[in-house]
Specification:
The complex is a heterodimer. Chain A is mainly β. Helix content of chain A is 7%, strand content 41%. Chain A is elongated and about 40 Å long. Chain B is 0% helix and 51% strand. Classes of the chains: A mainly beta, B mainly beta.
């Protein structure tokens, strides 16, 4: 598991948005942004649950 | 003058047809989620190399999302540069897939797309088309984003395909 820092930028429409400071690694299996950082799950990590895995 | 076949002493001569095959630029089924923030969050960024579209080319984007069903807005966007070509709010359902086509209008610096707030990106709409003026002769970017209205929920970009249809 590794983390990637975020950058908060303002678009030309004036709205703020979050993006990663570097590209996601090619061996990522799942990515989660919590508003503070991007967490990159890789082989061997326990993957996070998402709505797709928790909804009936 | 159109590129017509001609009859020669050896038979019909057919001029070569320029390749117009779609190019898969990016494809992923790696789940990318946002939670814990109300700020619009980039879940994927795809580079569109300069000149790859051509003056009459198009980009085709097919994203698929999942999210919890609730009364709270979850906003799903696909942007070309800063312009949203898909900008849909979902609430009480749990998944979405869309077809977004961004077309150059006989110019590498003029684009048109379907009404961005209209559901799946196909069918009829009472909303107007969206236009942009990005110079596609140089590198540009598609971004796929999610934005929550309740920080405790999540939006997951389950996957996407981005193709270029040169023209």
């Amino acid at each position: 598991m590794k983390t990637i820092a975020i950058v908060k930028a303002t678009g030309i429409d004036g709205d703020q948005y979050i993006s990663p400071v570097e590209p996601f690694p090619t061996d990522a299996l799942a990515i989660v942004c919590d508003g503070e950082k991007y967490t990159i799950y890789q082989a061997g990590d326990i993957l996070p649950e998402t709505s797709s895995t928790t909804e009936e | 003058m159109p590129n017509l076949a001609t009859l020669t002493a050896e038979g019909w001569s057919v001029p070569p047809i320029p390749s117009r095959r779609p190019i898969i630029l990016a494809q992923s089924a790696i789940a990318a989620s946002v939670t814990g923030t109300l700020v619009e969050t980039v879940l994927a960024t795809i580079n569109i190399p300069g000149g790859i579209m051509g003056a009459n080319g198009a980009i085709r984007v097919i994203p698929i999302w999942s999210y919890p069903s609730s009364a709270n807005n979850k906003t799903l966007r696909v942007k070309f540069g800063a312009t949203a070509f898909y900008d849909v709010v979902v609430t009480a359902n749990v998944s979405a897939q869309a077809l977004i086509v961004i077309r150059n209008r006989n110019s590498q610096a003029s684009q048109v797309g379907f009404a961005p707030q209209s559901g799946t990106g196909v069918g009829g709409s009472t909303s107007p088309i969206v236009t942009a003026a990005l110079d596609t002769s140089v590198d540009q970017y598609i971004t796929i984003t999610g934005q929550l209205a309740l920080a405790g929920e999540n939006i997951t970009l389950e996957g996407y395909t981005v193709e270029v249809l040169p023209g």
